[in-house]
Structure formats: structure tokens, C-alpha cells
Amino acid sequence: MEKQDQLLMKKQNKNLVLDIIKNKSPISRTEVAKVTGMSPTSITRIVSELHSQGFVRETELVTSGVGRKATLLDVCRDVLYTIGVEIDKLIIKIGIVDYVGEMAAWLSIPRDEAESYDETLMKVNRGMRDLIEKHQLPFEKIIGIGVGLPGSIDYMNGLVKVSDQLKWKHARLADDLKRLTGFDVIIDNELKMKVIAENFKGMARDSQNAVLVGIGSGIGAAIILNGEIYRGDSNNAGEIGHTVIDPTGNVCNCGKIGCLATYISEGAIIADSKKIKNIQSIDEVFAAYRKRDSWAINIMDRTTTYIALALSNILCLYNPEVIILSGDTIEKLPELKGEIERKCELYIWEPIKDTLKVVYSGLSNQGVVLGAALQVQNSLLDLD
Ligand SMILES: [Zn+2]
Predict the structure, then answer these.
(1) Distance, CA 255 to ligand 1 centroid (Å)?
(2) What is the pLDDT of residue 382?
(3) pLDDT by residue (tens digit) across 68-98?
(4) Domain that holds residue 338
(5) Does residue 56 lie in a domain region?
(6) Do 16 and 114 reside in the same domain of the chain?
């Protein structure tokens, strides 16, 4: 074996052992050896390395078998922290997450629709520093920042190609935020960050094939195929908002006619409502729906029909075991759930329907932040 390969294998083994301790703790060395198929000697060596690096600690003794004592292993949750950030049109959310994915600190700051790119970045930096100080978290244990935002994102190069919601174009977000904060920064589309959190501890926990759909100011999806995020060629896989569903329909802000987003997004709902009432916000539409105003019921009835159709199309394309619905529209108007389910019953193809689970995100408003912070661990943590 080449020296390079040996080093790589050593690194992979170390990652594997740490992953198992993290996911199955408390666990004994013997059990780790059994799960990995590695020799007890290798496990002892790797565990002692991880112990001296601060990742693993020994916990209580338990009796194993015939009166023998075994020491159990656990991970140290405060060995490192990562920062997750969500930047949305009207809000910035910041969370600091520990090594086992628990939120150690949380803050949300309003964002002005008209504020500049630099102003938003400054807010993120200030908010993050306030949070670290307030919770007295050790700076040197923070390994990086992950940012989730709406739009088409070149995650490899840390570039926001375009974000209609934030009105940003060709922004070198990762570099700019690194310069400002001093931390390494990774970025990605918000739903792709969120699906990581769903896969780690949410409704798609340990799922190999899952789809997360976000419905709010826009509509989009993030797809996990065979246990990994499916990105497509340019990280735009899942952008269902711009699938055309009616070539004679409404004009979309992307320049095309009849995109799905023009029937489902908050902006589209408000625009249609304005034809009848002097409506300024989505909350007013939802309030009218609750009051059973017929115009609001009709508009939302059309919306849920298009949501169900979109779900049915996604299901035929990817055949996931679970589809998670999330986003402001469903959180603000949970009454829609029953409507969507009833229409799914009509539109979803029989062979798929039997095994499929349609569920709702339980991560509330923290999903993107949590996923972004977890992705920092996945991408930036180097055990050497
Ligand atoms: Zn469009």
C-alpha cells in the first residue's frame, strides 16, 4: 500500500470510530471494535488519540458479562462549536451549535428589505460576536460559519450566483464574510442546509431517500438520494418553483411564463388578492381565509391544488420514502395541512402512495441554522 493511501485509511478509520461513538454513545471499546470490524488494538490506539484531542471521554463503568467491568465512551459535546446563519428577506437568524448538534445559543435580527449587502454582513458579524460574548463561548473552539440563503448558490466557490429574494447577484459571500469575521465560511441554498438537519435529527432521520419542500416567499425542494444531497450539475436540482405548469399562465420574475412559483409563492398570493381587496401582507390574506371570506378561500384552494400537484410530480421523479413539507405558508396557516393531504390523496400515483409518508418539519424556525452549522462540521472538521 502506498504511504498516501495508508494515511487516508487511517484518517477514515478515525472518522468512522468517532462517528460511531457519537451516534451510539455510551458505548464500550469492545462494541466499537465489533461494529467497525477493526481489531481491539486499533480501537484502543484510535480512542486514545481522540481522547487526547478532547473529542472522547470515558464515562461510567458497567458490568459486562461475567463480572467484568467495561468503561464506556462518550463524545465531549463542548469540544467544538459551529455557527449557523440563515439570511432571509426580512430576518437574519444566528445559532451556535455544539458538537452533538444541540443549539447552545440563538439570536434573530430583523433585516430590512432595502438594506445593502454590506449592511447585512455587518449585522451577521455583530450578532455573532454578541452571541459568543453573551454565552461566554470560547472563541478558539469555534471552527467556522455555515450560511443558508435562498437562491442559486455555487457552494464549492462560496458564491451567490443570484438570490431574487435578497436581490444579490454574483456576491462572493464566503470570502467577504471570512474577511469580516476571521472564520472559515461555507454557504449553500437554505433548503439544502435544512435537509441536512432533517436528515440528522428531523423527520428524515437516517433516511436514504427523502425530499424537503419549502413553501413560503418562494417554493423549492432539497433532495436526498441514496443518502446524499442530490445537487445536479450546478447545484440547482430541486428548484421546482421554476418548473412551468401553464404556458399561458402568469409572468414569473425569472422572465418565463407560468412557473409554479407564480401560483404558490406569498408574492403571487398577495398579487392575486390585490385584484379583489386592498391587501398589503400575506397575514391579511390568511386572516381573511380564517374568516371564511370566499375570495381568500378560492385563492388558497387554488394554491393547495398546485402544491399537491407539485408534490405528486416530485414523487414521480424521485420516489422518496418521505416528503417533508416546511416553510412559512404552512407554519402560519396550519389549517392548510388537511386540504393538502386531501388533494394529495387525489393526485398521488397509486404505486407510490402505499409506502410514502407525507410529514411536516418539526424543526420549526431553526432548521436552516442547525443544518448550516452541522454542515460546517461535515466540511471543515479535520481530525488531524
Ligand atoms: Zn420562474
Answers:
(1) 6
(2) 81
(3) 677 899 999 999 999 999 999 999 999 999 9
(4) 205-362
(5) yes
(6) no
